[in-house]
Amino acid sequence: MAKGLGRGIGALFPGESIEQSGQVEEIQLELIVANPFQPRKIFDEEALQELADSIHEHGILQPIAVRKKGRKYEIVAGERRYRATQLAGLEVIPAIIKELSDAQMMELAILENLQREDLTVIEEAEAYQNLMESLHLTQEELSKRLGKSRPHIANHVRLLALPEDVRGFMNDGTLSMGQGRALLGLKNKRRISEVANKVIKQGLNVRQVEMLVHNLNEEVSRETTQPKKKDIFVAAKETQLRDYFGTNVQIRKANNKGKIEIEFYSEDDLERILEILNLQEE
User: Fold this and answer.
1) Nearest-angstrom CA–CA distance, 243 and 247
2) Fewest beta carbons less than 10 Å away: which of 13, 177, 237, 255?
């Protein structure tokens, strides 16, 4: 079990795995439907076929978990085994029936995938966002519930502010999370897709993307103000604050006074920053 991730499942099923307790029944595949809260949208077809070949030869070694929904059964855990069983041409699958609420289904779906590291960074971000909206949780509350750090959750959710095509690049592995985070620092948000394509075409690594974004932001600044050389201390503190808040931070200093500007790109991003500052509404 991945470190820290047992807390959510353990709270629902103390001392056991979701698929380890209960009576096993053989259920017709035609009566089973996918988990409506499944955060995973991309399945490796080659890996599924390998699993199907194994199931065809050795059978299913571990039952899936389902819940009764009308005349059908919704998958709680084991969607890969279910899909592979279909590919193997079988008509039934061993399953354990659980009684779960929608909230439990949603939480278990993300926990199962996080444990297996099956989600892309965007799927993970969407899962966190959906959980917060559906269960009315703050990022801090969600982090405690899932055993993930608040910055981990915040940094993923921020990626949802990227344009749809850029999120697609991250889903298929063309862009990494680090590259996506760097692109969020662009002042001219309309250029993110254009710059993302340039990054892909030129094969830039994360550091190179950060430098490219920095240079582009400097160009934007030069269009409106005269360039001013920033002292080393201020530049170092800006970098420290950017890392802490996970967003672009500017320190504007003159005559021993000044201001700190923290950028946000959505209402959720603002809430994330306010949580860091402990200023969110009670």
Assistant:
1) 7
2) 255
Structure tokens at 121: 């960074």
- As given in the structure block, the two tokens for residue 215 are 């240079």
Count of the separate structural domains present in the chain: 1
- The β-bridge partners of 67 are 74
Q: What is the CATH number of the domain that holds 86?
A: 3.90.1530.30
Indicate if the pLDDT at residue 119 is higher than 60: yes
Q: What is the pLDDT of residues 233-282, one digit of tens each?
A: 888 888 888 888 888 888 888 777 889 999 887 777 888 888 888 876 55
Question: Is 218 tagged catalytic?
Answer: no
Rounded (to 5) percent helix, strand, coil in the chain: 55, 15, 30
Rounded average pLDDT over 38-58: 83
Determine, yes or no, domain membership for 164.
Answer: no
Flag whether 62 is in a domain.
Answer: yes
Assigned domain for 31 exists: yes
Classify residue 186: in a domain, yes or no.
Answer: no
**Distance between first and last Cα of the chain:** 34
* Domain extent at residue 16: 6-114
Say what the pTM is. 0.59
Q: Check 19, 79, 107, 123 and give the catalytic one.
A: 79
